[in-house]
Amino acid sequence: MHRATDFDSRQTRTFDGFTLVELLVVIGIIGMLVALLLPAVMSAQEQARQTQCAKQMKDLAGAHLNHAIKKGRFAGWVSGSDARPWTVQIMPYLDMQQRYREWASNSTAEQLDLLICPSNPAETGTEAKLGYAVNAGQEDSDGAEPTSGSSTDGRWTAVFHDRSSTGAPAVGLEDIRDGKRQTMLLSESANLTNWDTPGEKQQGLIAELGGSNTLNDVTGSDSSAEGRPNSFHQEGFNVAYCDGSVEFFFVDQEDLDSMAQLYGNMMTPAGAANGIDATD
């Protein structure tokens, strides 16, 4: 009799388990934990992408500085009779000599991870997307020689000019009179086309293009969207300076006019706001 009772007890325990209410409680707790942890995980992933983006910009800035030291001037946003964009001009300083020769011979292009921010969404229909732009200042109408204190083609308006035309302004490290740490070299720009497409808005940033409210706005789809600073980061975009340093430029959406003025001041290498001509 004792053995039968013991067997029945074991058999009863065999069918013990969670009730429906208990399962729902456990599932609810797991859901709450996931909801609490997911934003933190996503934030950490975005921070990692933002850091990688800054590292890529630092590598690009270093290549530009090496070009400026060796050539005595910065690359143009486009240069030469074959219209080489700046992305091609600095390839030899990024250990991409073979790719540089391949482009020079047949102008082929493919996606380069170094030229696109990891936070940017995957693109379709393009193999050479560009995510960074050089400081092209005021729009360069003809690449003509600057006139004292007033020409929009003057060296004081930008670091990078159209170097494919005769007599185009050349900017070297000695022309950065506002301070290399205060003068912008590169910025993120999420609305650019391919890195092998020549064109000022396609390769560079244009001062005040589209107005002050375009800072970090990636929603524009017209031509004014090109040539403006923006990114897919939440609060701003990475900027590289003429000393090779990189920092995150926070955009205060409540004070865009001040932000745009500050950004515009960062684009001028030699006191353009005061009418100072870098050729003097």
Provide a short characterization of the protein structure.
With 280 residues, the protein is of the alpha/beta class. The protein is built from six helices and eight strands, in the order ααββααβββαβββα. It has one domain (51-274).
Q: How would you describe this protein?
A:
The structure is a single chain. The chain has one domain. The chain is 34% helix and 10% strand. It is built from six helices and eight strands, in the order ααββααβββαβββα. The strands form two sheets. A five-stranded mixed beta sheet has the order 6-3-5-7-8. A three-stranded mixed beta sheet has the order 2-1-4. The chain starts with a helix and ends in a 13-residue tail after the last helix.
